[in-house]
Amino acid sequence: MTSTNIVTILKQVGAVITDSHFVYTSGKHGSVYINKDTLYPHTRLASRVGSMIAQKFKTRTIDVVAGPALGGIILSQWTAFHLSHLKRKNILGVYTEKDDQGNQIFRRGYDQLIHGKKVLIVEDLTTTGGSVAQVVASVKQAGGQVTGVCVMVNRDPQNVTSRVVGAPFTALGAIKADAFDATDCPLCRNHIPINTQVGHGRDFLARKSLQSGK
């Protein structure tokens, strides 16, 4: 499968939205949003994406697939499912959750399933690489070995690399989208309204309102 295939799948379900003002998970702002939540209800397509990732790693030794909540949960399950069939062995699918400080950590005893195992980390999108880097750190802290990291779409292929995430890194495809700090956002300067229907715009505006005392 090529980069065009994953982009085609996302466009097929209306996941690629342009010409608006979005707030990303990283807190950065931009005009292109990939609403991956529109993919997951389509189980055959979500399964296909998991299969695409599994095919990239079918020759690697993998015991567990891990992903950060929320999107990484579904991808980890489908990827583990297809890897189990390809490799004719039981490969587990687990996930991390955010703690009170916003760090991705293993709960529910999943750290015990990671210890001593070779782990593939999957995620749907990456803008800065921060979430997957935290999962890499949590896998290592739990005593696991990171075989690789694969995301569905890398939104900043020039800057989000293996060095940034701390492990061998790849993506099914890339959709280049500029991302700006909230304090240096041209969309904000031009008074373009923040989209509150998708992304984290609603939370951003709520925090901004509290900070301004309104």
From TrEMBL:
Orotate binds at residues 127, 155. Homodimer. Its cofactor is Mg(2+). One of its GO terms (molecular function) is orotate phosphoribosyltransferase activity. Belongs to the purine/pyrimidine phosphoribosyltransferase family. PyrE subfamily. The keyword Phosphoprotein does not apply. The gene is pyrE. This is Orotate phosphoribosyltransferase. GO terms for biological process: 'de novo' UMP biosynthetic process; pyrimidine nucleobase biosynthetic process. Residues 37-155 form the Phosphoribosyltransferase domain. It comes from Candidatus Chisholmbacteria bacterium RIFCSPHIGHO2_01_FULL_48_12. Pathway: Pyrimidine metabolism; UMP biosynthesis via de novo pathway; UMP from orotate: step 1/2. Keywords: Glycosyltransferase, Magnesium, Pyrimidine biosynthesis, Transferase. Pfam families: Pribosyltran. The keyword Magnesium applies. Catalyzes the transfer of a ribosyl phosphate group from 5-phosphoribose 1-diphosphate to orotate, leading to the formation of orotidine monophosphate (OMP). 5-phospho-alpha-D-ribose 1-diphosphate binds at residues 98, 123-131. It is an enzyme of class 2 (transferase). It catalyses: orotidine 5'-phosphate + diphosphate = orotate + 5-phospho-alpha-D-ribose 1-diphosphate. The lineage of its organism: Bacteria, Candidatus Chisholmiibacteriota.
